[in-house]
Amino acid sequence: MNLLSEAFVTRIGRALLAVLALTLAAFGPAHAQSTHIQPKLVAESPAPAPGSATTLALTMTPEKTWHGYWVNGGDAGFGLSVEWNAPEGVSIAPFRYPVPDALILFGMMNHVYEHPYALLTEVRVDERVAPGTDLTLSGVANWLACTDKVCVPEKAVISVALKAGDGAIPEAARTRFDGWRALLPQPLDRHGTWERRGDMVRFAIPLPASTAIDAPHLFAQTQDVVDYPAPQRFSRNGDHIIIETRAKGDKSGPVSALLKLGGGRGLSLQFEPGAVPAAGEAIAGPSDGIDMALFWTALGGAILGGLILNLMPCVFPILSLKALSLARSGGDANTARVEALAYTAGAIVTALLLGGALLALRAAGEQVGWAFQLQHPVSVLALLILSLAITLNLLGYYELPTFGGGQALAEKGGAAGGFWTGALAAFVATPCSGPLLGAALGATLVLPAWAALPIFGGLGLGLALPFLAVGFIPALRNRLPKPGPWMATFRKWMALPMGLTALALGWLLWRQTGGEGWHYPVGAITMVLFIVIQIGAQQRGEGDRRLFIVAFGLLLALNMVQFIRTFDDYKATAAIASANGSTFSPAALASARAGGKPVFVYFTADWCLSCKANEAGAINREAVQTAFDKAGVVTLVGDWTNGDPVITRTLAEHGRNSVPLYLWYEPGATKPEILPQILTPGLLTDTVGG
């Protein structure tokens, strides 16, 4: 914040600044239109007495939809600063802020004022100042004004006319200032204690049980102590209020904070390191409820996003399996309904399990995001083997009960087959983040676990909606083709996309291992081919079961054990380092932005087909790169293939839990523009002005 203040103004001398202040004051209405929050400096007494003090108020009036910030703005803001031009014998105390509100935007918590507010300060006049002395006070104020879409650093010269006098306070001014003072937090006369326990931070506030508390919230003024958007749990243990929330940073020593009590009331607090009593009887607070608008918006976005996933390339191989299953049903209503419900259950349960695992890992302190299951080679190898097995089954090398056999097996396996097909669809498809899905999953970062899980379930429901509709709407089901000889040919053609999926997974595994572990997927492929051949031989009444068991054991020992041992502590390989971009890091971003050039940052992963489609179809196109070169655009690439805590935190800072994410920084801009998840060459060239 100090650096930003220095960037806005250079001290050019007290006399010149005073002249500038009076000039701007004369044209105040014209100047006021240049800012989205209108500042005005007023004094309780225009004639402060020498040897005493008077109160000044800096009133801030935001335009509609705009807001200003508390002294600690939270995750994405900063408070106001003033570089004063004070006459001789005048000293100015720091501003005191009224109780703020908590505002969550894109997964980040901001400490804001969305209504007119006033900052108060005390101005003391030295007793040696002669009565009648001109004490006109001026300064350059800097602050941040934001909406839910854009932030603008603003500044203005503020001034108030003062003259040393008798300290008289007009009655109207006293009433007005008393109203502002009532909104300031009251200092607590005793300090509290605080401590860290693992990833939690705990506070104890000495507060008598008779003190009324309504919807409390703790605003930490000291940074690097608490994770601002994390839920806060309040309880009472005797004459202490106990607060527990998620820790952030490694701050030690005293902590300053503000406890919001409700009704605009608050307490300013000081905490010293020390023991905190055990939690007691729970107190309802804002964290015990949720932002219902955010919840319903995220749930709707997850359902629609899951529905749109059915159109994404990464899901097509799984759709082919379900299409074949529905064709086999021949339009039978009961079979179609059973398989549709089973498919839906499989997709929802798998999405819930993946979401639950993600929330558990994050609660344990891991920096992980959606699609974490594809960030480890062992998981990718398992999917590779599964894809190979399905491909060979579709080609007819062996049979599964759900694809053939008698009527009893078909009926028995219909629900099971539908369930596991839905589970596979959710497992493989959800990493492909499509429109609406990124923002919906980003909301799970700030919602409590019980509210976040339904959003993951909504994703699975959206993915299954087309088949649920076919199962329960006869008009749609009647449009399905009738069973016939064409199904054998169709089944073999469906092996093509699944085989391409297996090739893509093999390539991803090669990328994750840096090319050094290529012999492991080759070994896995060999093992699967051998198993399939033996199963097929057994089904046809051929082959030796004992030979199969011995050979299978040898292959398993030679391939899987060594693979797991080798990659138990695998290291991520170098980032993609695209020919058209450098590797992303916060330092690289800061360096690129310091150069005064436009910066394009994109986050991708080798397992994200949407990312690769955007790269091939838009980012790496010659016209786009020519426009980038002409404008001097610096491109930074963040590779999330193997997981990266820095990238995970960066995604979360922009309200995202998955890739792709595309950021465009104009020179001098404080915030990036988040580009759509589906890019076109025209969109990028228009963005760069090419």
Automatic annotation (TrEMBL):
The lineage of its organism: Bacteria, Pseudomonadati, Pseudomonadota, Alphaproteobacteria, Sphingomonadales. GO terms for molecular function: protein-disulfide reductase activity. Keywords: Cytochrome c-type biogenesis, Membrane, Signal, Transmembrane, Transmembrane helix. It holds the Pfam family Thioredoxin_7. Residues 40-156 form the Thiol:disulfide interchange protein DsbD N-terminal domain. GO terms for cellular component: membrane. It comes from Sphingopyxis italica. It is a multi-pass membrane protein. Residues 1-32 form the signal peptide. This is DsbC/DsbD-like thiol-disulfide interchange protein/cytochrome c biogenesis protein CcdA. Residues 296-498 form the Cytochrome C biogenesis protein transmembrane domain. The keyword Transmembrane helix applies. It is found in: Membrane. InterPro entries: Cyt_c_assmbl_TM_dom, DsbD_gamma, DsbDN, Thioredoxin-like_sf. The chain crosses the membrane at residues 293-319, 340-360, 380-398, 419-443, 449-473, 493-511, 517-535, 547-564. One of its GO terms (biological process) is cell redox homeostasis. Its main location: membrane. The keyword ATP-binding does not apply.
